[in-house]
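Ticket #4471: structure export looks truncated?
Reporter: QA, pipeline team
Priority: medium

Steps to reproduce: submit the single chain below to the structure queue and open the exported record.
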Amino acid sequence: MPAQSPATWSAIILAAGEGTRMKSKRPKVLHEIAGRALVSWVVQTALDAGAARCLVVVGAGRDDVERELLSRFWDRVEMVLQPERRGTGDAVRCAIESNVELGGRLVVLYGDCPLIPPGLLRDLVDRSEHAGASLGLVTATLADPSGYGRIVRNGAGDVQRIVEDGDCSRDERAVEEVNPGLYAVEADFLREAIAQLTPDNAQGQLYLTDVVELAANEHKVVDLRGNMADLIGVNDQADLAMAASTRRRRMAEELARSGVGIADLNTLYLDAECEVEPGATLGANVHLRGACIVRAGARIDVGCVLTNVVIEKDAILLPYTVAADSTIGEGAQVGPFSHLRPQTQLGPRSKVGNFSETKKTTVGEGSKVNHLSYVGDGVIGEGVNIGAGTIFCNYDGEQKHVTVLEDGVFIGSDSQLIAPVTVKKGAYVASGTTVTRDVPEGALAVSRPKQENKEGYATRLRARLRRKKTP
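Actual output as written to the record:
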């Protein structure tokens, strides 16, 4: 269970903006890092930090944003519509007016800040409560503060107000202490302050930042210094890439400290829903997408790309294996350059070799699909050997059909099995055979033409061709 602050507090997450600088049809807050939407990272942070309620203000792309959040968090989030984008102050006004019962302290944060640690929210709430402050906020320092509101302090060093970048004087523009946009405000004060906001600024909007000056003039304001690396917001695709890189590195370091072997902390691509047990080993440039599970002792070599794959204990994935929606059994081996398509189930100690492809196929314990083969819509028993170049011909142009190989079957190289077909227990299929009907138990199936050797033919042919080549 996440640690909780002693105070009861709720989160208001601002996620109504269009994000035009992303140059994308997708709402900005739905762009993903580590397989999770930006706004979902923020909601998860608030919940992990102990928020009693989580209100998300939506606007642009409302239906898509609500669909993402409800599918992931269901009744742990509440949606609030901001009909017109009239500024951050107006967004907060929409939230508090739609929930008149909101009390305690309200933590306001942006839906495009995916790196905020839960502990920072707890610290902000605790500090604000212990000081009895109407408003607490996080500040940070930037060598280049362009684009951020500046923190203006009085002679005593207390926060007096925030001036947005477009409204700064020359002296204010030189200030390096900025407002990342993270506040903890007492609910009753916030209601009063929001009612006093006016659009008297360069943007003609209601600025939530103006609430800080109201609090400083009439009540008490406390501030908490934060690290901008945790507070950075995503405004364009470059910001998104940098935030994703930071998140990946943090996740990789966390896994390494838990006992996972990682060849390169900078090139592990891991989605947030993946699980890797201590004792597993991940090579360079490994991609784990969706909800992969990697058990202890599994080894995933360089360049593998896995999506929603379960890799059981002691399995080995050789370089550049690609797999999706599949299970790789205990001690199994796959690759290099193998492709497991959805619904592949590899049994213990089975093997799929280089340049082989599987789809919707079960491979029994100890069975081998060694190399350069395609097995689709198959049921393969235990101890089966499938030679190089074997093809399960599963599609007749209209429907997919199943190929069944029972325990102990041997399939020679360069064979084609025309589904639906069953090769019974212990049977052999000779190399180069096209199997069109069931093979009985213990039988040998062979359909290739009889070999004929023409003595001396190659010598005569070569001589004839040389004569034609001579001028």
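Status: closed, not a bug. The export was complete when the record was re-opened. Leaving a note from the reviewer for reference: DSSP finds ten helices and 42 strands in the chain.
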